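in:
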């Protein structure tokens, strides 16, 4: 089965699983999420590690770093789910943000090593326009919800929270030219680029779609609706979708 056919089959399955997750009973939802999220990420980490052995030098390092990013992410979800009731308040928030920041180092190293492989260093006008639009939208999605909630302050925890959201937006902005340049590079080498695009798209989904949900809810939904259980489970559902897309892309890349 070629990559395109595999993705045409598996991506709709990922969508179906996401929709099923969205409508799970409350009694099941929490357990389901706590299992599926780390399991999907860990499986992705194993696949990324397996892919790393297919390459040499920078590409090998890139996928090793990506596997570490996924493994740490999976471990963090398990850890913070376990200590959620033991550690509360600002300490829990600081721990989450600190681990997230460390994990992002590996994602950045993944991007850096991909760029080392690319022999095309210039973006055309269309790519610059797309990147500029992405930057504006990403920063808006990252900053609008906290601004709308009025949580801006000089509190160190708030600053860390806002900083990690800006880093999220920055990563999405960085991934756009990487996709563009790497796809161009692969096409110049007459190699398929679809699976790589799916992998990066999954990262973007998992990174920014939650912020998109937050912004949309605050823009169009009344306050009473924002507090309903259905709206509160959407972020985890979006994360699962992003993780599944990454997993599908990695498996297809083998």
């Amino acid at each position: 089965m070629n990559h395109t056919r595999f993705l045409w089959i598996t991506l709709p399955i990922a969508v179906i699983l996401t929709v099923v997750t969205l409508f799970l009973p409350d009694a099941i939802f929490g357990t389901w999420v706590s299992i599926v999220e780390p399991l999907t990420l860990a499986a992705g980490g194993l696949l990324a590690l397996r892919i790393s052995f297919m390459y040499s030098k920078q590409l090998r390092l890139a996928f090793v770093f990506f596997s570490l990013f996924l493994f740490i992410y999976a471990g963090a979800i398990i850890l913070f789910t376990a200590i959620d009731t033991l550690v509360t308040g600002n300490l829990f928030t600081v721990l989450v943000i600190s681990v997230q920041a460390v994990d992002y180092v590996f994602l950045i190293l993944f991007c850096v090593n991909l760029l080392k492989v690319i022999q095309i260093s210039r973006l055309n006008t269309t790519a610059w326009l797309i990147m500029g639009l992405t930057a504006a939208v990403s920063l808006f999605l990252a900053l609008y919800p906290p601004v709308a909630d009025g949580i801006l302050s000089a509190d160190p925890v708030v600053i860390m929270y806002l900083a990690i959201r800006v880093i999220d937006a920055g990563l999405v902005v960085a991934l756009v030219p990487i996709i563009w340049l790497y796809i161009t590079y692969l096409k110049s080498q007459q190699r398929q680029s679809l699976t790589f695009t799916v992998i990066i798209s999954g990262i973007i989904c998992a990174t920014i779609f939650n912020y998109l949900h937050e912004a949309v809810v605050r823009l169009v939904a009344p306050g009473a609706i924002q507090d309903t259980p259905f709206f509160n489970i959407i972020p985890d559902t979006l994360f699962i979708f992003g993780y599944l897309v990454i997993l599908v892309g990695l498996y297809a890349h083998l």
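note: The radius of gyration is 19 Å.
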